[in-house]
Amino acid sequence: MAYTKKTHSRRKNRKAYFNAPSHVRRIIMSAPLSRDLRKKYNVRSLPVRKEDDVRVMSGSHKGREGKIICCYRKRWKIHIDKITREKANGTPVQVGIHPSSVLIIKLKLDRTRKKLLDKKRRFKKRDHLAAKEKKKAEKGGDKKVTQSDVAMQDVD
Fold it and tell me: Could you say which DSSP state residue 90 is in?
């Protein structure tokens, strides 16, 4: 896997965000899971998809719930079935909401989604164990003393 350097430039980050291809936009268009789902799956957030049940957490539609009927990646929006407004001529139109302002309350699980949850859970567990080992090494636990270390103690 090739390592790519990350930039701190606001200009370059905005360019990368707005010119992101569709498969990258899917990852960016993620939403946090509710407390129950977070406990159940041990995962904090997931990319949103059609037929997930969500609750709007911020904006003028705060507190409303519904099912996602469309993920509009080109505009960075999702459309929720019960959230509409009326146009000037009276026809109802869907209101686009950014996925970061919603909370996933019920997942649509299929084979690929289960695989993704399992993968995220495994990596989280692995990272947690690695952090534990690093902390243990910093404290000095399990430090092996070699013959050269013993010989160097008598040098003083």
Answer: S
pLDDT digits (tens, 9 = 90+) for 89-148: 999 999 999 999 999 999 999 999 999 999 988 888 887 778 878 777 777 655 676 777
Distance from the Cα of residue 106 to its chain's centroid: 16
Taking the C-alpha atoms of residue 30 and residue 101, their distance in angstroms, rounded to an integer, is 10
Cβ atoms of residues 52 and 68 within 8 Å: yes
Checking if the pLDDT of 30 tops 60, the result is: yes
Helices (H), the chain: 10-18, 22-28, 35-41, 111-139, 147-153
For residue 56, the cross-strand partners are 102
Helix, strand, coil % over all residues of the chain, rounded to 5? 40, 25, 35
pTM to 2 decimal places: 0.76
Sheet arrangement for strand 92-97: 92-97, 77-86, 65-72, 53-56, 102-106
